[in-house]
Design a protein that fits this description.
Strand order of the largest sheet of chain B: 1-2
Helix content of chain A: 55-70%
Radius of gyration of chain A: 18 Å
Mean pLDDT of chain A: 96
Strand content of chain B: under 5%
Number of strands of chain A: 0
Number of strands of chain B: 2
Order of helices and strands of chain B: HHHHHHHHHHEEHHH
Oligomer: heterodimer
Mean pLDDT of chain B: 95
Low-confidence stretches of chain B: none
Bound molecules: fe (ii) ion
Strand content of chain A: under 5%
Structural class of chain B: mainly alpha
Shape of chain B: globular
Order of helices and strands of chain A: HHHHHHHHHHH
Largest sheet of chain A: none
Shape of chain A: globular
Distance between the termini of chain A: 39 Å
Low-confidence stretches of chain A: none
Radius of gyration of chain B: 21 Å
Structural class of chain A: mainly alpha
Helix content of chain B: 55-70%
Largest interface: A-B, 49 and 50 residues
Chain lengths: ~260, ~325
């Protein structure tokens, strides 16, 4: 296989990881609809969800073009099963209470912002362009979730306790945010992908944790789960079953 | 409508002669189509009526997110999911915008929301109906947002400035929602399978009459309506608005290739309007009293969200207080 073809295959995988992670997070935001802790948060969460869904669609579109097998973005989002999905594990974790959503989103936003920043330099112009657009949104997302980390961390005893519990539960999944596999390394070397953002991620998380008055856990260790390669927790199956129910029940339909 | 059967506290209209000098000045301003602004003097009844109407309207925007939220996690394509999320976000924005307009009258948003959760005030009857298929997302956009627009376009000229201005922005977005809803149905009718077409007709069958009920019962003899009209809060009678909605909707229904669940619906050459069958008002009154499949659940969901969010809001307040103390 030529280097160009290898890079192409790796790139499809890489785009699906970005797209699926955005997609799954957006779906979790949809679950908040009508359930947010304040009306302002209904608007804000829907806003972030919309941004992520829009970014997912852009990455899916590009992945579909590269795959060139007649399948479109909707197919990639709504017809692949849980073993084919490539999202980060943290994205599929249940929305939980507002502390869980905040911590989850914060961990992701810090990672996302770093990755998109890296991708604005991609030698692939399409990626660089989409990343630049996404980065503006992600900058707002990161500021928003960082602020909520401070509010919950420093707010009341209860909010501090809930946030601490959420962090404890979610921390193990942050391993994926600080690690890269061969595909990511290969694309980083080719000047296409963002590479490992682990050090910068840890530094930024440590900074916000200190300000929020939270104890920073030991770095999360690798374990056998691997969302980027389709090995998921039990939560993803249910999320997809719900999200994909109509396209799967009516395979010939046009919506 | 979104605000159905608003009590004005009126027993009958006063003539200008019977009014106090303040009242007369106020009424003359209203008659001259000068907007009333928050700082201006206004009769107590006017203020209370507006608070009732705007809060009902705002509650309806917020509760109205729920029937659509019911399908948000199951929207069938990326495009439809994006559209529905954006629409629901708009509705939340409408709610916020309206609550702000209401607060210019001295009412408190949290108090009014509490009243909703205690069942003391109403939201629009339409949002007590369940959404059973994806086609309901189209039917709601087309019919429900469509009916809302017919009601709200005249409210853009409401005598109360903040409400009128809120309506200008809201109406723009509602028109967009209506076109989007119609397009959902049109796509299913033009490009869909037989099953999808049946889904569309079924959605129309279920939402047709409830949409007509949104305008409320005939208000020809209602003292509340007469007072609201004199204050130029309301500009048209419920029956007029309903007819206007029907006249614009039936051609769209035909273009879809669907039918209404009303054997008496037909064009009347003489009046230049569509005639339609009798509305079953008992259902409407039942719904307002909570006899509906979702009325109780909608309020319960809203109440749960706010109750369960209490610790989050408390944390935000505590944090802001600490920030302030540190800055001082
Ligand atoms: Fe609205
Ligand atoms: Fe409205
Ligand atoms: Fe709307």
């Amino acid at each position: 296989m030529s280097v160009a073809m290898q890079n192409n295959q790796a790139l499809v995988e890489y785009l699906l990881r970005l797209a699926d992670t955005d997609m799954v997070l957006a779906q979790r935001f949809c679950e908040w609809c009508g359930n947010a802790p304040a009306l302002e948060e209904e608007v804000a969460m829907m806003n972030v969800g919309l941004d992520l869904l829009g970014q997912a669609r852009n990455w899916y579109d590009y992945a579909a073009e590269l795959r060139d097998d007649g399948r479109d973005a909707d197919f990639l989002a709504f017809r692949r099963n849980e073993r084919e999905y490539r999202n980060l594990l943290i994205a599929e974790q249940p929305r939980g209470d507002y502390a869980v959503t905040t911590a989850k989103q914060f961990f992701f936003d810090v990672w996302h912002h770093l990755v998109l920043t890296g991708l604005t330099e991609s030698s692939d112009e399409r990626i660089a362009g989409l990343a630049a657009k996404g980065l503006k949104e992600s900058t707002y997302h990161r500021r928003r979730s960082s602020e909520w980390m401070l509010r919950l961390g420093q707010g009341t005893e209860e909010s501090h306790r809930r946030l601490t519990d959420a962090v404890q539960n979610l921390w193990r999944f942050t391993y994926e945010l600080t690690d890269t596999d061969e595909i990511e390394d290969q694309l980083a070397e080719a000047g296409i992908g963002a590479g490992n953002v682990g050090d910068a991620w840890r530094a930024e998380v440590a900074r916000v944790f200190a300000e929020a008055g939270l104890d920073l856990p030991e770095p999360a260790r690798h374990f056998y789960m691997d969302g980027k390669n389709g090995k998921h927790t039990e939560h993803l199956g249910f999320l997809l079953a719900e999200m994909q129910s109509l396209p799967r029940a009516y395979p010939d339909a046009t919506w | 409508m979104y605000a159905q059967q608003v009590d004005t506290g009126s027993k009958g209209l006063k003539s200008l002669d019977e009014m106090s000098p303040e009242e007369r000045h106020f009424q003359e301003k209203v008659n001259a189509e000068t907007k009333i602004e928050p700082k201006n003097w206004m009769p107590d009844g006017y203020r209370k009526t507006l608070i009732r109407q705007i809060s009902q309207h705002a509650h309806s925007e917020i509760v109205g997110m729920l029937p659509e939220g019911n399908w948000l996690t199951r929207a069938p394509s990326l495009k439809r999911k994006l559209q529905l999320m954006a629409k629901i976000q708009d509705e939340a924005g409408h709610g916020l915008y309206l609550y702000s307009a209401m607060e210019t009258l001295g009412a408190d948003r949290d108090d009014e929301i509490d009243k909703l959760h205690r069942g003391e005030v109403k939201f629009s009857s339409i949002f007590t109906y369940p959404t059973l298929t994806w086609a309901d997302m189209g039917a709601i956009g087309w019919l429900v947002d469509g009916a809302a627009i017919v009601n709200q376009v005249p409210l853009q000229r409401c005598s109360y400035g903040p409400y009128a201005r809120a309506m200008i922005r809201v109406c723009k977005e509602e028109s967009f929602h209506q076109r989007q809803g119609y397009e959902i149905l049109l796509t299913m009718m033009r490009e869909g399978t037989d099953e999808q077409k049946a889904m569309v007709q079924d959605a129309i069958n279920r939402f047709w009459w409830p949409s007509l009920m949104m305008f409320g019962p005939s208000d020809a003899d209602s003292p509340n309506s007469a007072q609201s009209m004199a204050w130029k809060i309301k500009r048209h009678g419920n029956d007029d608005l309903r007819q206007r909605f029907l006249d614009q909707t039936v051609p769209q229904l035909e273009f879809l290739g669907c039918t209404a669940p009303d054997p008496d619906l037909k064009w009347n050459e003489e009046t230049g309007h569509y005639d339609f069958g009798e509305i079953q008002w008992q259902e409407f009154f039942d719904v307002l009293k909570g006899h509906s499949p979702c009325g109780v659940e909608r309020i319960q969901q809203r109440k749960n969200a706010i109750d369960e969010g209490q610790w989050v809001r408390d944390a935000a307040v505590a944090y802001a207080d600490k920030q302030k103390a540190n800055a001082a």
